[in-house]
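Sorry to interrupt, but I need a hand with the structure work. I would like you to pick a protein and set down its sequence and fold. Please put the record directly below this note.
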Amino acid sequence: MTEEKNPVVVMETSMGTVKIELFKDKAPISVRNFLSYVKDAYYDGTIFHRVIKSFMVQGGGLDENMQPKKTKFAIKNEATNGLKNVRGTLAMARTSVVDSATSQFFINVVDNAFLDHSGKTPDRFGYAVFGQVIEGMDVVDAIREVKTGNKGGHQDVPVEPVFINSMKLVE
């Protein structure tokens, strides 16, 4: 019996290509959810709307005018899966409500241990890691360096939009 390989997604951004491995075994709900958005071409034309150089880059839900795209249902938070928010990992973005993640994700550009699961209360539940950059971390590092400002009531928004042109599952 061959071990089933993890799905790999290629994200074409306006700054380059990023290849992402998804941890289907450790975060099945998050991965299934993410891939459903990928298959729908939902991410195409969205931007990285929150970029904090010493923290993470976040995208997957807003267009260049900072308008949110309609999402599917919120999913269960899988932060208890033992995966850590270390540099290069992808995690589901959410509000302060534990099980509120929909389409948005972030890529940790440094080790962010404070985002890991550390308790059952909402403030300590953590953020579910579901994938990792396997190629193109240099692109992510370029994104984290862009100049940011305020736009549409949001902070840390790239002055020049950084687009997700497309995301495709590598078959």
In short: DSSP finds two helices and ten strands in the chain. The chain has a mean pLDDT of 96. The longest helix spans residues 28-39. The radius of gyration is 15 Å.
